[in-house]
Known about the structure:
The protein is an alpha/beta fold.
Amino acid sequence: MSNRVVILGDTHLGARSGSGKFSRFFNRFFTECLYPYVKKHGIKEIYQLGDAFDSRTSLSIKAYHACKHQWFDPLAELDVGMHVLLGNHDILHKNTLQINSPELLLGEYQNIRVITEPTKVGDFDIIPWICSENEDYILKEFITRKDRASFCLGHFEFSGFAMHRGGEVMNHGYSADLFSDYEMVFSGHYHHKSQKGNILYVGTPYEITWADYADPKGFHVFDLNTGKLEFVQNPFTMFARVVYNNGWSGDISTLTDKFVKVVVQEKSWSFSFLFFFNTPGNIVTGK
């Protein structure tokens, strides 16, 4: 059995109002990127760091149906276990984790374990979203105990990090110093992959909004024996940007089924411009 595990960020199943286009795009990551890698390298454990589902209050049946047979069924068939910790999007109420979508929707899968309270699993301390219900126990007891694990997995809101690439750095949230005794802290929640000290925000596995454009997405592979961390980039993107200056030298086939922003610097012939970009499958969302 492999001594390596996959660490996977926020997946936000049902995002973009359950859009079928986005469901197919998300599915492609699992069927053509993550699961082939897992199968090839004999990996048997995945740790998903919260916000498995997108909406706190409702579920897109369309999106769940579209993803269930691509995400969760193959995982069971591959005999791969997945630990899913609760993120803030997974819970109905802000002050308690008691009602949550992963427990309600993933209970049929014996290979999936939903983490609803701070738990030690091997070399990992796994901590779900911190709220008023569990804050004192987590900060004053769980992470300060003598037998804490070497590494920590969570869905944390630390100050000093950006939610998206180039975005505003958050000036609220917990101080990373509270978790300084861990060798490494892997966190979901912020969608941009970034690291400061021992805190690593793993980022989302795929693009979800325009804020994710040109920001490398994927998953991490962590070797429990050596501590080596590898980032495996997702080759698929949903958003593209084209700069048009009386023509464009790129391959228009690469824009099929993507959301495209066109920046027009010069267009002497409007007919040529419209003909060039009026390709089935392209969605032009701006100029």
